Predict the structure of HNH domain-containing protein.
Amino acid sequence: MTDRIHTPYTFSEEELQRIKDNFTFHGDWEKVVFDDIKKNIVDHLRQQQGNTCCYCKYQLGYDIKQVDIEHIVPKSKYEKFTFNGKNLALSCPACNTIKSTKEVLKKTVVRYPQNSNHFRIIHAHYDNYSEHIDIVNKCIFVARTSKGSETITFCNLFRLSVIEEKVKAYQDINLNSIYQIVSNLSDVDPDVKKKLIDIILDTIR
Ligand SMILES: [Zn+2]
């Protein structure tokens, strides 16, 4: 497991100029003109993070919807940190969505903080993850520090043990046996049988 990002993304002169020319508010992050810059950021950070989410440490996928460029300090609150390399890390979309715009800074700042002390949660560039959180059986998150605890709460990392249990339950069940049991029910309308199978599958998914 990679503990932290050692080298933030460095923007080229041309990229900096493009940002200057096209960025006025945080919504501009979505502009097409920044697409290849974002691709460069993702490529760089995948290597730095060992292709894992900075919060839950799950493997990141390669499809565009399976990886997010996470703004550690939300760009909606601090627009000027939108393209700050130290504010960028990769996360899974779930952690990014759940963390949302929660307040990660202990107090308001003017310049981007240069060390870990200003942050309530694990900072992907400043903190060694394993000093703050132990991951047991790949899905149980145990806080070692208050930062670890805040990170678990911010991203609701408890959710992953539930997912792991569901995956295991799903793998353990022989789907054929479900069809067998349901189709053996006598005096049951075929449509009802189909619905029963759907209900059972929905429950274990
Ligand atoms: Zn994650």
